Structures are given as C-alpha cells and as structure tokens.
Amino acid sequence: MTSSVSLPEGTPAHRVVIVGCGFGGLFAARALKRAPVEVTVIDRTNHHLFQPLLYQLSTGILSEGEIAPPIRDVLRRQRNTRVLLGDVVGIDAQRRSLSVRTVDSNWKIGYDSLIVATGAAQSYFGHDEFAAAAPGVKTLDDALEIRSRIFGAFELAELETDPVQRERLMTFVVTGAGPTGVEMAGQIAELSHRAMRRNFRSIDPRRTRVVLLDGGHELLASFPESLQRRTLATLERLGVEVHLGVMVTGVDADGVATNSEDPALQRIPAAVKVWAAGVQASPLGRTVADATGATVDRAGRIPVGKDCAVPGHPEIFVVGDLMSLDDLPGLAEVAMQSGMHAARTIVRRLRGKPAEQFKYRDLGTMATISRFRAVATIGPFRLSGFIAWLAWLLVHLSFLTGFKNRIATVASWTVAFIGRGRPERAVTAPQARLDILEPSPGAAKQTTGGS
C-alpha cells in the first residue's frame, strides 16, 4: 500500500493514466489510492478479468461475475480514480497525450505519467485463420464461446444418429500443453466422465474423447520433470490422450490436421477445438514503440529498463505481459508486482526520490489437472496431488477481487468438486451458434485417413 504524500497547496495534481485493467493495471491503480495524483483507468472492457480461471468458466464451474467484476465497482472507493471505457489508438509521447476511441466519440487525454498494462493476446503463430474454428482462452468472450461449443456439442450428439458424426461431436482437441491447455483438457475430461453422467439418454458422455496436442516434447515445459511425469500420469488416468511432438498444421470446422507420422493423428475429426498454444503481446505495444522509438521483440513485447520504464521516456511504464525484462514469465504475479512497482516509482519521484530497480519475487507456479489434483513449485518445494491443489485453491482465493466473489466462488467449487454438478451450463440462443459444430458438406468422407 502506498503511503500518503502531500504536495504544496495549489500544485496541480500529477496525472496518471493507466491503460488496461488486468492484474498489472488494477494493482497499479490500487497502489495509487492515497497518492496525490489524478488517476484515469482506460480499458476496452468494463471488467477486470481473472484470466487464470477462464477455463473454469468454459467448463461450467464458475460464472462470469465470479471472475470478471466491474472495474468501476472494484475501484469505487478510490476518490482520486476515474474509469473510462475506450480503446487507446494513438500516443503522442512529445505532448504526453493519448488518442482514445470510445463508443461514439474520440478523446484526447493528457498524462504526466503513463502505465501501459494491456497484457497479451492469443498467438496462432502466423495462422490467424485458425481462430474461427479454435478459439483461444484469453478473454471473457473466448470463454463463453468455448462454453457454448462444449455444451452445444453434447446436445447435438444426443440428436445425432450417424455414429461417425456422433463420435466427431464427442471429440475435443486442445492445442498447447502448457498450464492452460492441461487445465482445459483435464476439466473437459472430468466434465464428460463425471459431471454429466446420467444427463443424456442417447449418448454416454464417458465415451468422450479428449486429445491434448503440443508441438514440443514436454508437458508443462516450465515445470520440473518429476511434476511433468505426474501430470501426464494423472491426465492419462482421466482418459486424456496426450500427444507431444505433434504440430497442428490445419484447423477447420471439421477437425484438426497434424504433422504426425501416425495415420490416426494426421486428421482428427472434432467439432470442438480449443487453442492454448501461444501468446503475443497486445498490439498497443507497437503503438508505444512507434511513439517512443523503442523496439519490440518477436512476441511484440517492449524491452524496458530496470525500473519498468521505456528507455528515454521515464514517464512511460510498461508492465506485465507487455514488458520484456530479465526473461520474466508471463504470469499474473509478474503483472501485479510490476504494476505496483510502477505506481511506487511515480510516488517516489513526487517525493523527489530516485527510482528503484524492479525486483521480482517468485512466489511459485501452479497448474490444476482435475479436482483435488494439481502440481506446484513454490520456492524449493515441489508439490503434487491434493496438497498442491489445496495450495492452488488458497492462492487463487486470495487473488480474487472482492469478498462476495470469494464466497460465490467457494460455493461454485463446492458444487463442482465435492458434488457432481456444473452449475453454469446455460447457453443463450445467440451464444449457441450450433451451426459451427455441424459438419461441412463432404465431412463424412474426411473422417478417416490422412490429411
């Protein structure tokens, strides 16, 4: 928490603009609560998204409100902060102003200090055409789209009389074996094999096929080998097919094509595909780079100094997934700590003190596999199974924004993990879009053989 700072009477308040209200932007804003500054938070959505739990929204465990509280509500007690719904489309680093596009107008907003925290988006490695058939897991819209496809596929399978097409509808392919991919595959398997039993009359959800693909040769590559092995064993017990060293070469409405030498994997007919294979920095990174003369790396991130500021522009901070610094990973904890550091640096400067270097405190890495099963690295400790899952649960509860969100989340977890229910399975007609799950003309001929 930033301590109170006083400026001489009559001195204009220092204007701080924060672009993006993910973990980096939110924690920066909170750290400025008692500072003598005017804070403006600009975001293209009206909610703060707890991104690590999107896969639980996608599989019917949590609701939108539990992981995406309104930004205005979260910051309602910060009298020095205003929130604007808009999209930053330009930066004038010389005049220190932003061009902001809103629903029906364009604004010019000046700043004395700028914190850019717009995070990262899904990367399809140059194949953006895959996105229509295989949504990523980065936004609220992504998660709702995936949820509609998952539950819509089971509904269509219940109606399908062709066994080949029924099998396609009950095949789910997840691309990317990092934490998000592992969590998604594990939850789809648990949803179908456990939570949806006795929900249907014409199909048996336990016959669902869940396939996890990754072009690399390691599962959870950032984790120790011992935890990788345990994760693989747990996924296989859940019935997930894990295929490493298999690169996806094509994705369409009917399925997935790969470079595998195994004919059975060269073409996988599947109605539902989820992409969790890579990330790229927000496009605003290039806008910042063009305005300041900074560079961007291959992922679109901006290399920053040790104080998280853009070289040559100490008034502009880039934090979280958008910054490139000391090979730090794209984790929520990095975003939180760098956002708070940027805010504290602004306060230090107002006090006439020099900036300090950002020092990241590694609090560990976690991934859930299924209910009561997770893996975690916390300092020198390597945890797996129920203990790791309990640590994951406590950490995520502590990060959830708002007391009521924690209570609601615990209730939903109790229903899903102790019971068999998935309370958030409602899909509206506009969301359903069941036509995207149906085979295209001639698909039946493509269901066997290679690509």
Structure description:
- With 451 residues, the chain is α/β, with parallel strands linked by helices.
- The chain has two domains: 180 residues, FAD/NAD(P)-binding domain (3-Layer(bba) Sandwich); 232 residues, FAD/NAD(P)-binding domain (3-Layer(bba) Sandwich), CATH 3.50.50.
- The protein is built from 15 helices and 23 strands.
- A hairpin with a 2-residue loop joins β21 and β22.
- The longest helix is centred in the first third of the chain and has 20 residues.
- The chain is globular, with a radius of gyration of 23 Å.
- The chain starts with 13 loop residues before the first strand and ends in a 5-residue tail after the last helix.
- 46% of the residues are buried.
- The N terminus and C terminus are likely disordered.
Give the helices and strands, then pairings.
Blueprint: E1 14-19, H1 23-31, E2 37-43, H2 54-58, H3 64-67, H4 71-74, E3 81-85, E4 87-92, E5 97-101, E6 106-110, E7 113-116, E8 120-122, H5 140-159, H6 163-169, E9 171-175, H7 179-195, E10 209-214, H8 225-238, E11 240-244, E12 248-252, E13 255-258, H9 263-266, E14 267-269, E15 272-275, E16 279-281, H10 284-292, E17 302-303, E18 309-310, E19 313-318, E20 323-324, H11 332-350, E21 365-370, E22 373-378, E23 381-384, H12 385-399, H13 403-418, H14 429-432, H15 443-446
Parallel strand pairs: 1-2, 1-7, 2-3, 7-19, 9-10, 9-15, 10-11, 17-20
Antiparallel strand pairs: 4-5, 5-6, 8-16, 12-13, 13-14, 18-19, 21-22, 22-23
The CATH architecture of the largest domain can be named as 3-Layer(bba) Sandwich
Q: Portion of residues in helices?
A: 25-40%
CATH fold title of the largest domain: FAD/NAD(P)-binding domain
Summarize the biggest pleated sheet. 6 strands, mixed
Give me the number of helical elements: 15
**What structural class is derived from the secondary structure elements?**
alpha/beta
Q: How many individual β-strands? A: 23
Task: State mean pLDDT (0 to 100 scale).
Answer: 91
Termini separation comes to: 57 Å
Radius of gyration: 23 Å
Q: Strand arrangement, largest sheet? A: 3-2-1-7-19-18
